[in-house]
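Aim 2 progress update. The chain analyzed this quarter is reproduced below.
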Amino acid sequence: MKSLVLYTAAVFLMISCDMGTKDGDTLYVIHAGSLTYPVKMISEAFTQEHPDVTIRTEAWGSKAGARRVADLETPADVFLSADFMVIENMLIPEHARWYISFAANEMAIVYTSGSRHEDRINADNWHEILLHPGVESGRSNPDHDPCGVRTVFTAKLAENYYNNPGLAERLLERAGNNIRPKETDLIALLESGHLDYIFLYRSVAEQHGLKYLELPPELNLGDPRLNNWYATVSTETLGARPGEKITEWGQAMVYGLTIPERSKNQAVAEKFVAFILNKDKGQRILDSLGQPPMAPAPTPYYDRLPEGLKIFAVPVID
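Predicted structure tokens:
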């Protein structure tokens, strides 16, 4: 048995060494959990065009991912966040110089055919169903994940929209019994029947073949024309540094990406980002996966962009 263990360990080390490529051919991508399937598909398409590149990915709640970029000696050539403000608040200017907005999304109530009262839930009574005795709901951690922040916003907007004082606290307290670091961590709990409903992005529900309830635009954070309404709610979350608190305000959902300052493979990182932003390549993949793309990609940091990326972007004045 001891010999078998040593042999297995030796084989694992040999495989690990074989799988690695020289530093210039390896691209390290840290991304939001909600982008797991899109990043997989985009990476596969990119490596078809660039077979000499090996892409290694890590999925995190966007805030936790930003802390990986900022605080640890983790290889990071491209960072994709479910909220562009994560890059603005946690990485610029020390760890990144710019971001580009590249996709949108919206909040939804996600469930399965085995969820309690799934045959009765609708856009008018969903909050009553989630508070019904015996119903279990879940949400992600707002200190780690933008989906958790947006869940708080949706709950607070619902309280105002339905003129139901205390509704937000009740919804968040009920779902607070089942908080996970990122929104995709909740899917297994939902599919196994441990949860009846989760607050999740519509695109992720579609990618996993899950049932979902479309919320009114006033609640789903998916319509930029309603930004003044969304901005009537806010919440405090942990900032980039230990003990730091920041106030986040409601706004339409916009994903952002950047190339961290300490990227060791800038040239390949730029090619990968250009692939994502190309309307006939990465943007087409995003669209096919229920993730509305943004082309051309808006950014307030147009002048700081690498020259090769400016053709995909449009300057936005704050």
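Residues 1-23 have pLDDT under 50 and may be disordered. The longest strand covers residues 26-32. These observations will guide the mutagenesis experiments scheduled for the next reporting period.
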